[in-house]
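Dear colleague,

Following up on yesterday's call, I've attached the two folding results inline so they're easy to grep. Please treat them as preliminary; we haven't cross-checked anything against experimental data yet. The first protein's sequence and C-alpha cells come first.
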Amino acid sequence: MEGKHVTLVKEGKIGIIRFNKPKANTYNYEMMQEFNQAVEAVRFDEGIRVAVLTSSVQNFFSAGADIEMLRASDPDYKAMFCLFCQEALSRMESTPKVFISAINGHCVGGGLEIALATDVRFMIDDPKLQIGLPEVTLGVLPGTGGTQRLPRLINKSMALDMMITGRRLSPQEALRVGLVNYLAPAESFESEWRKYAEALANGPVRAIGLIKRSVQEGLEAPISQGLALERELQNRLFVTKDAKEGLSAFAEKRKPVFAGN
C-alpha cells in the first residue's frame, strides 16, 4: 500500500508502516485515512504477523494533528475528525497482531497518542528528543485517546501531571516511568526493533495475538469476566499445532519450531 503520506511495505513476515508528511508528520484527515487503510491491510494479510510504525521524516515520529487544518475547520468538523482518529487507533489496538512503535524522532501530541495505541514502544536514546502530550498549551486536551490511554499505561498522577502541565519527557525519563519499553542508540536503533519484531513474527503468533486480546479486553471488564475470557482463549490454543509443538519440544528438551497455527 502506498499513500501520499503513509506507506505499508511487507518485509518477510513484518509489515512496516511509515509516516512521510514533512516537516513533522502532522496528520490531517487524508493522512489518517491512509493510516486506517494500512491497519486494515495488516489485519487481512495473513502473511504479516507483526507491524511496525515508524517515520521517514528526519527528527520527527509525529508532532500530532495539523494545527493549521484545525484552525481552518469548524467545530463540527473538528469533532468528526477526533472521532475518526479515535476509531482508527482503537481498530489498531483491537487487532490481534502486535503493533510496535519505532519512535525515531520527536513524539508529541497526537504523535504520542498514536504510539500509545500500539503494544510496544522503542525510542532512540537521544536527550534532544521529546515525548509528551502538550495540548493544554493550546487550550485543549489530548483528544485522540491520550486522556484515557496514558493513565492506563503509567500511573494516574504522573499522567495527569504530564497532561495538565504539557511537560515533555526525555527518552530516559520516558523509559523510567514506563512510557516506552526500550531505548537504543541511533546507530543500532533499527536493528534492535527489527530483531524484536522478527522474534515475535517467527514465534507462536496465534498465542501472541490471543494474549493481546485477553489483555486488551480483559482489563476493561471485571476480573471474573477477564478470567473467563482467558480460559476460553487458552482452550482455543490447546488444540493448535503450535501448542502441541511447544509442549513436545519442552518434553524432548529441544527448541520449538512454531508454524503460527
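Below is the second protein, in the same order (sequence, then structure):
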Amino acid sequence: HAQAAAGVGGVIKMVMAMRHGVLPRTLHVDEPTPHVDWSASDVRLLTEAMEWPETDHPRRAAVSSFGISGTNAHVIVEQAPASVELPPTPEPGAVVPWVLSGRTETALRAQAERLLSLTPDTDLQPADIGFSLATTRSAMDHRAAVVGENRDELLAGLRALAAGSPSPRVVLGEPGTAGKIGFLFSGQGSQRIGMGRELYAAYPVFADAYDEVCALLDAPVDVDSEELNQTGSTQPALFAVEVALFRLLESWGVRPDYVAG
C-alpha cells in the first residue's frame, strides 16, 4: 500500500488520462456487476480503455481516497486551459536569482554543493533553473539567493556559497518572525520616464493590472511621454504603476500588513 501517497496515484493517473485523451479501463474487473442496473443511466464501467474526446467544455474527473479510519478525501480534477503563448524569458544580460534554503547553515551550503555538481551537466537555461528552485522547493529557515547575469556568474556565486565565503553575488538571510511588511504608494516626485516598461514586458500579472487601472482612469497614461512630469499625468501614471507593482508582489506571496500613501 502506498500509505499517505495512495490518493495521489489516482490524481496522477487522471492528469495523464486528460493529457493523452484516453479514458483508462477499471483495473481487476472483467465485466460489470449484475447487481447494478447499468441500463438505467448513462454510467458504465470501462472494461477497456477508450478515447476521451474533446468537447466544448474541459475534461473533468473525480478522484476519491478512502482511509481505514473512515477518512474520505475527494477531489475534482479539471483539464488545464490550452497555453496560447510561452512565458516570457529574460533578455540577455538580465539578472537571474537562484534561491536555495536549508534547515541549518551547513545544509544550505550542502544544497549549493549539490546544485553546483548538477548544473554543469545540464543544458537548461539559468532562468529555467531559477524558476524551478523558486517554485518547487520548500523554503527552510536558512536561505540564500545567488544572483548573476549569466551561467558563469551564477556558478561563481554557488561556489562561494558552498565554501562559506562572502560574495557580492550571494545574499544570505533568515525569515523574520516579528517584523511586519508595509507598502508605500509614493506620490509625485518619484516618477521617471519609462517607469514600469520592463516589468510590463516581463510579467503578465503586472501588465494586466496596469491595463485594468489605465482603462478606468479618465486621464491618459503614457510613461514614455515628457508630459509625465506634469501633475495631470504624473498622478494617474504613478497610481497605475504602483497598483501593478502591488499585484505583482501579491502574486509572489508578498502581502502587506500596512499600506500608506
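For the second protein, one point worth flagging: The mean pLDDT is 86.

Best wishes,
A.L.
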